[in-house]
Amino acid sequence: MIHDYWIFIGVFAVFFFLTVSIYLFSQNQKFKVKNAKLSTANKMIQKRLNEVQLEHIGTKLNPHLFKNILNSVQSHAYQTYMSLDKLANVLDYILYESNNKFVSPKEELNFALSLIEINKIKVNPLFDFRIKSKINKSDEIYEEKVFAPLLSVDLIENAFKHTDFLASDSFISIQLELEKRIFTMKVSNKASLKNVLEKEKSGFGSQSLDQRLKMIYNNFYTLQKSSKNGIFTAELTINLGDFYDKMRYS
């Protein structure tokens, strides 16, 4: 009798354990499915939020850029004929290409070089201006749509806007490089203290650049800024190759 009792207890315990295990497993699966759905919904919401933020930044950026370009041309009207082709390239790019999610490095680099030439209109011909371009046109991503348009604007505009053009040792240095699927842009300039203080109070451009880079390239970029002895340096590096691979295979 006692033996049968323990057999019953054992069978009941096994049955209870199996029932509880099946129930917990079922609940765990339901939780995983629900969690996956929530995760997917959250990613969709975050993606749309990023798109809205990028659209908002774009609506601010384009008029701001137009104003700066026109001011440069207007303030040196007698030199305008020398930059008409560059101006046409820049305006075409802003009007027709900047609304695309991505452009090629080739298109963005051509735009950046034209923008530099337009800004040089307001610089004294004797000013120490250095431009270095090392672009590997045979790079596999040179003509691929992997570059967010107008990313180069902020660093170029800030260099011209915040340089102390009256200082004897003043300069602007801009280096552009595309090599081994990696884009690098390094900008240095002798900054005016007054302009730096004004920049700290306003500075929409710098904030918008940081936001766009983080939302678009996430872990595929670095943006380093430094200041030493009145010389400000900003260096942007984007691993376009790895980003392109992610776009293709995700």
Automatic annotation (TrEMBL):
The keyword Aminoacyl-tRNA synthetase does not apply. InterPro entries: Bact_2-comp_sensor_kinase, Sig_transdc_His_kin_internal. Residues 53-123 form the Signal transduction histidine kinase internal region domain. One of its GO terms (cellular component) is membrane. Pfam families: His_kinase (PF06580). Keywords: Kinase, Membrane, Transferase, Transmembrane, Transmembrane helix. GO terms for molecular function: phosphorelay sensor kinase activity. It comes from the Bacteria. PANTHER family: SENSOR HISTIDINE KINASE YPDA. This is Histidine kinase.
